[in-house]
Each structure stands twice: as C-alpha cells, then as structure tokens.
Amino acid sequence: MTPPPRLDALTGVRGIAAWAVVFFHIRLSLAASLPGAVITILSKGYLAVDLFFVLSGFVIWLTYGDRLAEGGWRTAPPFFRRRIARIYPLHIVVLALTAGLALSLQAAGRPNADQFPWPLLPLNMALMHNWGFTSRLAWNDPSWSISAEWAAYLLLPLAAPAIAWRGWTPVRAGLAIFGLGSGLYGWMAVHGVPTLGIDVPRFGLVRCLFEFVMGALMCRFWRSTDNRRLTMGSASALIVTIMLYSMGLPETLCAPLGCVTLVGLLAATSGARGNVFETRALVWLGEISYSTYLIHFVLWIVFKLLFVHDLRAVPPLLILAYLTTTLAASALLYHLVEQPGRRWVATLGRPRLTGTARSAP
Hints:
Elements (H helix, E strand, L loop, with lengths): L7 H18 L1 H4 L5 H7 L4 H25 L4 H32 L13 H5 L18 H20 L6 H21 L9 H24 L3 H20 L4 H19 L10 H8 L1 H19 L8 H32 L14
Helix pairs in contact: 1-4, 1-12, 1-13, 4-7, 4-9, 4-11, 5-7, 5-13, 5-14, 7-9, 8-9, 8-11, 9-11, 10-11, 13-14
C-alpha cells in the first residue's frame, strides 16, 4: 500500500492551533498588555480543539482508512497499537510530572484538591476521563481532548464501512458533512449550550465524535475532487461561514463547518508555491504541537505558583519567559519522549529477531 501524501499545510496549521490553546489559557494575564479586541480573539482559542478533531479525522482516515475498510476488524489491533504509540507515552509522562507536582504541593502543605483529585487519577491514566464518568476537568486539563480522541479511535472500525462507502460522491460527502455539523448544532441547542467551550466534561466527547467523522468525510471529499475545484469550493464555503457567524449565527454551527472547510482548503492547496502554512518554522511547530498542547498547562500552573502574585498583572517579560520555556519543553519532550516512546510502543508484541535473519520493512 502506497504511503499517504505529505500535507505540510495541515502540519503547519496544527502548530498554530496548539499555540492558540496556549494563549487561550494565559489570556487573563495578557489583558493589561494587549488591546481588548485581541483578548476577545484569544478567548475563542478553545475552538482550536475543534480544528484538532477535524484534522485528526482527516489525517487518520488518510493514513488508515483504506486498511480499516478493507481488512475490517483484523486490522483494528494494529491500528489501536499505532495510536497508543502516538498518544500514550507523552500523555503518561506529562501526567507523571503533574502527579509529582501534586505530591510536592502536598508535602509543602499546599495541596490543590480541586486541580489534583487523586480518585480521578486512574481515569486520567486510562484516557477515560472525558467519557462521562466525571463532571469536572482535573490534573492536566487539555488531555480531555486526547481522551475523547481515544474514544473516536476505538469507534472508528465500526464507522469505517460507512465512511468508506463507494457511493460517496463529492456532493453526497458535502451534504453529509453539513448534516453532521447541523446535527452537532442540534444536539447542543437541545441541551441549551450556546458555545462549544461550555461544560467540556459533558459535551466534549460528542463534540469530538461529530467533528472527527466530519474530518474523515472531508478526506473522502478531497480524494474524489480535483484540488482546483476543492480550493474554490472550500474557500467560498469558509467565507460564507465567517460571514454568517459575524451576522449572529451560532458558534456551535459555524465553528465546526468553518474548521472542516479550512481543512479542505489547506489539503487542496498543500504543496502550492508560497503557501504560508508550509514555512519551515510553522511545520516544525506542528511537528512538536502535541508536546506543546500537553505540557503548556502544567507549566503555567508552575509559573503561577512560583512567580505570579496577581494573575491580571503578569509582567510581559515573565510571559515571554513562560512562552520560551513552553517552546523549549515542547522540543525536548518531542525528541526525548514522544518519538522514542512511539517507536518503543510500536514494537511491543513483535517477535524479536535472532542471528542474521531480517524481516521485511
């Protein structure tokens, strides 16, 4: 089976999305230094997680969709092993660091039971902490989305035959994407939820599952449509979505549709000359984005404990120090934990070779 094409624009936008989440979490400390309009934009940084869900559905289907559709459940165990290799080593290392912080605070007589409730640690370790078993975010808050994505991975073999249906035409796929986006909006409306960032423990999993499948269908759309037509269609749909949102249509409808059309546009234009999302710096940020996403929240807790006395009056130099530390920690975790951990877990269960025998790659 031929390897999937390299779409650097999707990697680049993932780096931007990771840092949007970082700035979302520190926005209150930037309020004294930045214009109110900028803070308003940063306050919507949680929507970057919706982009992550769509991106994940697109890339996962591009990479594994054919194998899951053709091989059925026989190919599910290798798929699960590869996904565990991708997400679990870094998750467990960052969670261990967080537990070390919690123990240090407890030893110093400053326990933070709200952020570090020990009874919820096993759920976090098992990546089940956003499956409806608890009504709160705890420990490393951003990992809720990794828990939701793990559920999407587990359900993907069930959904694969429908996503791989040969009857999908570009029109049908487009209508299905719009239908899923409308369905997510309807679900949120029925429960009285005006924005996607509200009550994540209750609605985050549903949000992920809808958007993950939307991303997978956009991959089907992209593979069956020439890039020129998809570029024009996605750009037009994205502009219309932004206009409708500015006119007052709800975020719960516009944001998922905007994310999926953006992913379609970036996929269609990946490799184009002058694509700003494919600059070396952005692609590098995208490659280490998972580390950025998982470590930044814990680092911010540490910075607040050590250096911050007034959350709304943090000196700009301290903010810069935090951002620089987050970037450095992301690069270190990527090279020292994420990549080696991925290789190690991916080889578990494989027979060891002896003598001079070699297996096919």
